[in-house]
Amino acid sequence: MTAPVCVAALYRFAPIADREAVQQHLLALCGDEVRGTLLVAHEGLNGTIAGPEAAIARVVDGIRAMPGFDRLELKYSTASAMPFLRMKVRLKAEIVTMGVTDIDPVEGVGTYVDPRAWNALIADPDTIVIDTRNDYEVEIGTFERAIDPRTRTFREFPDWFRAEGKALLDRPNPPKVAMFCTGGIRCEKATAFLKAEGVQDVFHLEGGILKYLETVPEAESLWRGDCFVFDERVAVGHGLKEGDYSLCRACRMPVSAQGRQSPRYVEGVSCEACHDNRTEEQRAAYAERQRQMEIAQKKGIAHVGTDAAAELTRHHDRTEPKID
Q: CA-to-CA distance for 85 and 256, rounded, in angstroms?
């Protein structure tokens, strides 16, 4: 495939009655040219796909033709090489896992804020800014003044808010709450959750960080660092340009250029984050997978890793490549 590769991150909360039928429809739409991951739940669709521009346009048009999906939330970017190994369409209970079932991310959602109006909102001292993403994402970049809940997964966010976040709003004049995430989907649920908890003035960044980095000039930006994305690009910066992070194949965490200088970093085998919590069996599997990948690369063929090694990395939900 010739570079650049077209990457489309998309989601939509809309009822899906027959998930299996939609799964087969999406696989047929993607065909052999498109790769990535799409998640299908009764509440909607979420995912990131990549491929030739014409093929991506075909898939997007096909999704928009589905009942309720004409207003698909969609963001385009490019990659210097195909960022996915295969095409997967998975059936899920939720398209972004929060674990709270009695909220409505369509009717109960917070107020959308255009990226061009976001700076004024989060610079207001009467606004509390909350990053709804996970700890490893926040570590490589976030907005000025943003509160980091230090959650490992989005499922932990409700407990964090009830235990700690709610106390931040305990003032004589309750502040506004501004929330953000990568592409917007987590905030659809997070703002609906806060409103269900009785918080009135809840706002979120429309289109997420990706839309902000695409829209707001770097000279005017209040974003600091890079934005983690769930594919082989690892992170992007202003203008959605690929950053200099790589992905540790052992724990799927982002590794900076400085982190790659650590003696604990071995490509494909370990990094600072996971060096001390892997077994010798795991290290051997990772090393063999890396060796096979290097052989395949020299031969000019694709390599997706051994099943054993892949299973050893499947230890948490951070590996799911999706919009958010």
A: 22
The answer to whether the beta carbons of residues 134 and 149 sit under 8 Å apart is no
Q: Does the active-site annotation cover 30?
A: no
Query: What is the reported pTM?
Result: 0.81
Closest CA to 319 of 211, 258, 232: 232
pLDDT tens for 239-263 read 988 889 998 988 889 999 999 999 9
Instruction: Check 181, 248, 251, 274 and give the catalytic one.
Output: 181
The whole-number average pLDDT for the span 73-82 is: 88
Q: What is the Cα gyration radius of the chain?
A: 20
**What does the DSSP assignment read for 226-284?**
-EE-SSTT-EE-GGG-B-S-EE-TTT--EE-TTGGGSTT-BTTTB-TTTGGG--HHHHH
| pLDDT tens-digit readout, 145-199 | 999 999 999 999 999 999 999 999 998 888 999 999 999 999 999 999 999 999 9
What is the SS3 assignment for 142?
strand
Name the β-bridge partners of 10.
Answer: 47, 74
Rounded distance between C-alpha atoms, residue 16 and residue 45, angstroms: 9
